[in-house]
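ASSEMBLY PREDICTION REQUEST
Request ID: AP-0331
Submitted by: J.K., bench scientist
Number of chains: two
Total residues: 495
Priority: normal
Notes: Please return the full assembly, not individual chains.
Input sequences:
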Amino acid sequence: MRKFIKYSFVDLIQSYWTILYFIFFLVVTSAILYFSADMTKSIVSMMNIVLVLIPLVSIVFGAIYYYNSREFTELLLAQPVRRRSLILGQYTGLALSLSLSFSAGIAIPFILKGIFVSEHLMDFLLILLAGIGLSFSMTAIAYATALKHENKILGFGISLFIWFFLAVLYDGLILLLLIVFKDYPTDSMAIVLTFLNPIDLSRVMIMLGLDIAALMGYTGALFLKFFGSATGIIITLFSVFCWIVVPALLMVRIAKKKDF
Amino acid sequence: MIEINGLNKFYGNHHVLKDINLDIGEPGIYAILGPNGSGKSTLLKCIIGLVNPRQGGIKVDEVSVSDTHVYRKKISYLPQIARFPDNLRVYELIRLIKDIRNEDADETDLVRLFHMEGEMRKRLRNLSGGTRQKVNMILGFLFDTPYMILDEPTVSLDPVSLTKFRKLISEKKEQGKIIIYTTHIMNLVEELSDQIILLLEGRIIFKGGLAEIYSESGTSSLENAIALMVEKNGK
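STATUS: Completed
Returned structure:
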């Protein structure tokens, strides 16, 4: 597997898109830090960008990468290698290169701003973790979807819809459910629903770190009430990790049965 | 020895390979022929393990292909479409495949044969279709394996490279390898092949040597012989 991680990572790190992705985060983070004197506000702005953009880019990039390397994957699978190692290796290389572009892009401006000696170090690290977690999770979802659907347009469409559902529709649906069931106790339902969306989980995780009740929204406040800040962060972190492992296992299962 | 027993493959409801039984044991060149969509590539892909059969089994040297990936060490494969990672350079790609196979090989002669010395440091995205096919060819012939599976190796090759391909494949035959390939170029088949396997709608309708196909169809041109057989079998 290590060989496949290495090759896809080396291939991707030289790609224009990965470099562009790095420059984008570098410029946006620098701009946000430059224009705002309040570090908490900067971190909240960064959080909003990370939560929307990373899932979108990971989904799009994951699907494009799979479909573009389709024929080469075939050539590699004709070598004496395990399907599992190849697919997991390609995926890990892809998610690593996206994570590295993002991490370097946001870390450089924050480090220059003196984040290591700031009280906000923990918040920054949580954003970094959330971004990396989302990169791995959403790339796995995109890869599994692309493997399942040979038809590029269909695979791409489904991937984009998953992003749209998780990033945009989901919160609206939660709100709707809460209104419909407003006469019943809805706390546990809201918590369960948050676990079912990696983007919401990441948001709650960062907010618990920021410790700003006013910004937390309903689910954030619930997590704080149920688990407290530290346990809440650990639980959300673990759940984001599950959102990486489960799609990755699914991806391997689909790959094993697939006809290339 | 490649043994195929009762192989059936469906893509959705489409029955692509129908009860294929085939033993390939004698060294030599085997041409798999048939109209577009007759299942040639699928058959090759089943042997190499890219496609999972619905029914039936394939064994390579007594080892079932569905049980392990190790048997592929004995097979060189040349895919129909040559597309490689955009950002890698040619020499990096060759190094990568050697690394993945855990096998060392010397590509110098092949690189010289296809006049690729000047292209080795170029990125693969900058190569033309024909040059990429030459890279494909180098990778296909790089390793010393007892079996070679070539899926339409002659596509987009220029006449000079085609001559080189003929030379390479004849050399491999002399070395006692089993070479299985598909093509639509009939004079290549007439010149090179020891055995012909003719597929029609997923069924083997003929297997034998050139002399047999001529006598069975009553003509001395392979193209005509195949056309007659395909028509006789209902298409």
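REVIEWER COMMENTS: Chain A has a mean pLDDT of 90.
SIGN-OFF: pending second reviewer
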